Structure formats: C-alpha cells, structure tokens
TrEMBL record:
It comes from the Eukaryota. Keywords: Ligase, Phosphoprotein, Pyridine nucleotide biosynthesis, Transferase. NCBIfam families: NAPRTase. One of its GO terms (biological process) is NAD+ biosynthetic process via the salvage pathway. Its EC number is 6.3.4.21. It holds the Pfam family NAPRTase. This is Nicotinate phosphoribosyltransferase. Transiently phosphorylated on a His residue during the reaction cycle. Phosphorylation strongly increases the affinity for substrates and increases the rate of nicotinate D-ribonucleotide production. Dephosphorylation regenerates the low-affinity form of the enzyme, leading to product release. GO terms for molecular function: nicotinate phosphoribosyltransferase activity; transferase activity. Residues 173-410 form the Nicotinate/nicotinamide phosphoribosyltransferase domain. It catalyses: 5-phospho-alpha-D-ribose 1-diphosphate + nicotinate + ATP + H2O = nicotinate beta-D-ribonucleotide + ADP + phosphate + diphosphate. Catalyzes the synthesis of beta-nicotinate D-ribonucleotide from nicotinate and 5-phospho-D-ribose 1-phosphate at the expense of ATP.
Amino acid sequence: MEPVITSFLDTDMYKLTMHAAVFTHFKDVKVTYKYTNRSPQKTFNKEAVEWLKAQFLMLGNIRVSKEELEYLKNTISYLPLAYLEYLANGGFKAKPEEEIKFETKEVEGKPGHYELDILVEGLWIKTIWYEIPILALVSEAYFKFVDTDWSYDRQVENAYAKTQKLLAHDIVFSEFGTRRRRSFKTQDLVMQGIVKAAKDANKTNLVLGTSNVLFAKKYNVNPIGTVAHEWMMGIASVTNDYINANKNAMDYWVQTFGIENAGLALTDTFGTDSFLKSFYPPYSDGYIGVRQDSGDPVLYTEKIAHHYNEVLKLPKFSKIICYSDSLNPDRAIEYAKVAHEHGLKATFGIGTNFSNDFQKKSDNSVKSEPLNIVIKLLEVDGNHAIKISDNLGKNMGDPETVRRVKQELGYVERKFAGDNEAHRWAA
C-alpha cells in the first residue's frame, strides 16, 4: 500500500503558523483532539477502516526535508527562526501509534457499517499537525471504499469553469479544499484547472493561492492562511478565561509574528459579538480584515461594516472581509456585492465546492455528497475546549461548559437557515 500523505507540507498553512505559535508559547501543554462526523448517516465499511489504520501509521514516516524548510523560510518569511530551527533539528516527528487513538463501533442494526472514533492525544506541539491529514484520509477512504459511484471525469474542466465564472466577476479568491477533498488526486486536478483558467484570463492576480502548502509549492502560487478556531479555543481553555480569550489569543499571535503579519482575524469562535468587544486599536489596525465562517453572511457583513466604519471610523474599503463558509461561485458573487455595498473589500476561501464536487456516475443528475467532518480540540491541559460560533449547528464541546460560557459572554442564540450540517453541500 502506498501512502497518500507523503509531505509535511500537505496541510493547510494555518496549521504551520499555529504550530509556530504553539512552539513559541505553549511547548509543554497537553491536548486531546476529537473527530466528529457531522454527516452521521455516512458510515464506513471494513475495507475503509483497515486502509485508514495503515495510512495513519504511515504518517510516522514523514520528515521535514531541507527543500521544504528552505521553501517555508523563503515563502512564509515571518515564521520565527527558532521554529524553523526546531523543524531543521528533527523537532517534528509524528508517532501515530502513540498519538492517534482509532476505534470503530458497528452501527446497531446495520452489520458491516462502522462509525469512526478518533482521538489525538499528546503535547500540543507534537499533535497539532495531524488534523488536516487525518480528515483528508478519512474522506479519501470513504470515497475509495464506500461511495464509489463517481469518477474523475471533467474535474479539471469543472474547476476551470468555476474559476472563469469567478474571474469574470473580478472575484478575489483562494482554494481552501484540503480538509474535505475527495482525494489527493482531486485537489491536484482542481489546482490544474484553477491555475490554467487564471493564466488564460490574464487574471492571476485575483487567485490569491491555496491553503495547501504542498500544492502552493507545486503550482508556484501563494500559500494562504492565518489562524483557525483551534487557536482561540486553546488559549481560552489553557487560561480558563473566556471573557478575555480573543484579546489574549491576538496578543500571543502578535508576539509571535509581529502586528504587521497579523493577517485576518477569525471572529466567531465564541460569537462575533464577543470578539468585537476586543477588536479595537492596535488589533483592528494591525489585522488586515476578518474572516466569516459561520452564521448569516449578510448579517455578518452588516455587523462588521458597522464596527469598522461607524464605531472605529475607518475609511470605507480600507479593510477586508474573507468569506469561507460553504461557498460556491454564485454565493461568492452574491456576497461580493453585499461587501461592496457596505464598504468592505471581499475575498473568498472556497474549499469543498472545488475539492469535493461530484455527481453520481450512475445518474449524473444526482449529487455525490461530501462528508462533513471536523477535528476539534476537546481538552487542553485537562480543561474542556469549546467552540460556540455564530450559529447553533456549529457549537462544539462539553455542553455544560458551552452553556456556562454563553452565559458569561451574554451570547445571543441565533439559528441560520443554512446550517444543516448533515447535508451542508447537498444543493
């Protein structure tokens, strides 16, 4: 069996920036991550399970090469030198046989159908890398052994056509598809289509790059990413301070990379209302904008525009809003208009619609739905880790801690019409 994941760089860029921040501030912190299938109707067979066991173990063979280190040093120039030296001296060495706890449970009344129970445990600095490879492998296993009613036909052409449509409307976007890609090959084909369309349209400046560092390197585009919910969740959990969690997370981030490299702020970990209470200078000046990842995108745009333009009195179009939640070209075009109407520059991170958009081979009119799977922090140094977000469907973690923190923060419950997590990409 050949390994699917063969490079340290086959991950999203924000895992590497967060790895650097954890290395800088939290070397001794222990964590537990938990896998969740938000589309529980999709189960696995024995062949998929056995293949995954073997693929997980092969992650232990990955090392950071000199060429990869040189690429990181030259391309993500603000990574701390001490972090790069840590990698160069063999600091990264996955031990999946110790760090990945993988069990299965047969579904009651459905012999041969299994639910996956995956935990990752160990030092944060040693385990942070696993999330994206595990998710990518789980998705690949499902579509290799369970749902096989699909083909690679026209994947390059489809990505090309979507990119053409986006560029015709001058949409600025990045490819964000690693974690839920149908397969490694799919993401490679998609990148071929995106890059070719951008060159043919003479609009390569509108394609910012890809979140996948390996494909950024292969296709000579920028690796894109700043931070994930994991960072805010981890800081809140290790300090047990949810009132100041967003501010503390930004402080640690800026101390690691400098205010000039703060990037985009992710606002919804504990609800955007809570985040905005901390989002004043110097943070609001240093961060180039915000990323929308849950809730109603239009209401979110209005809220962010009000904060930037009315509360902070910043000039219109001086800040960016990056939409990254369940996008397709039509939604991107729609939200770009909304952002413009509210004085914000729009960018987009489009993931699953690029890397896992297939029809059934037996009936091309029926969509072959992607999995909706996540891996999130469960515990940090023995404390519960939670995520609230801007809609109910994305709440995660210990229910009692979620309830307590919502009360502490004065969180207002909202349900968004687009938050059917079991069938997120059904349309």
